[in-house]
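Residues pack. Consider this:
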Amino acid sequence: MTVLLKLNLQQFKADPDNVLLQDAVTGQVPFTQGELILTQFMQQSTIAQLAQHEEMTAPVKTFTYLAEGPGAYWVSETERIQTSKAKWLTARMEAHKVGVIIPVSKEFLRYTLTNFFNMIRPAIVGAFALKVDQSSLFGASDSPFVTGTSVWERIQASGNAVPLSDDLYNDLNRAIGLIEAVDGNPNGLTTTRRFNQNLRGARDTTNKPIFNDARQGATAEALGLPIGYANAESWDFAKALLMTADWSYARYGVLQDIEYDISTDATLTTITDDGDDSLYNLFERDMFALRATMHVGFMTLKDGAFAAITPASAGTTETIKTLSVTPKQPDKEQEGKEQEGNTDGVVEAVISNLQNGVAVDEDDLKELTNDQLKFICDTLSVEYAAKATKADLISLILG
């Protein structure tokens, strides 16, 4: 006799802790994991940390913001009080689809939805945050946002760019002052870890650090403003070294639905196999591809609300120092001394170029002595171990 057990299949299918990925090849990311993706996206994305969040329940959101407040007037008794209108402007923000495709081993098809998205979540978050930051900060070539709306395009339109000088304190003060000049309220700075050596190395006339204690790591704030560090891959170093803004004039929004789809037989055209130009075939590799998509909107509202410190040579014909090494002298007894003397100019050029955000050649660093490399580290406030090798010092300087 066969006994049939009654199961609530509808409830079973809806529970991501029970459903295998191979049985749910398309749909929305389970609620809990979807919420975590959104939360971590907002924590990891530079623009999401700085800009003001706008709730979005539809692909397009129209809202008004106060551009200029009403005026008040002094009046005598019984005198008619003048009236004035507040200036309200309308802004329209549209959410655009951003997607990521991640090749994954086929064994993960036997994972439950919950376990799989817990594992893959960091990759999805990182890809989304990087792409959104690239487009919103600098207006990447594939940006879907309206032309002229990125932070850098606003800086270009207003001319709020301060070329880096040998006085970083004054450069920061000038950049902040450009925003304050139009009655803005600068409330944050953003840059990358690469520029932190400039902040950490800035010293006053008594040779003490200006922005942080010498024992601290990344500089947390400067001139009273917090500093957020962006992913270097989202940054265009040829355009800006640091940005500041009244970030209330930057807005972003996220539609809550994160959708996914998987394929086991697709051929990926945007990546190739290692060692040749053949396309990446999932079937041949016994893999599948996860495609995840979400919708993000971004806009800026005012040109003068943004400013930047730019490379010293940006927009000018100023010649950047080039690094060159005088060939070694054949006299072996004097070789060490002469080589060190010949490379003194290289040391100065390395320090100058790094302070101005200009890349240096590793081969030039290899020609320097350990003492010279340590001198560069000391000048740039780069910490190193007492027994650091030449390779270690070069790595720290280039890092």
User: Anything to note?
Assistant: The first strand starts at residue 26 and ends at 28. The CA atoms of residues 76 and 82 lie 12 Å apart.
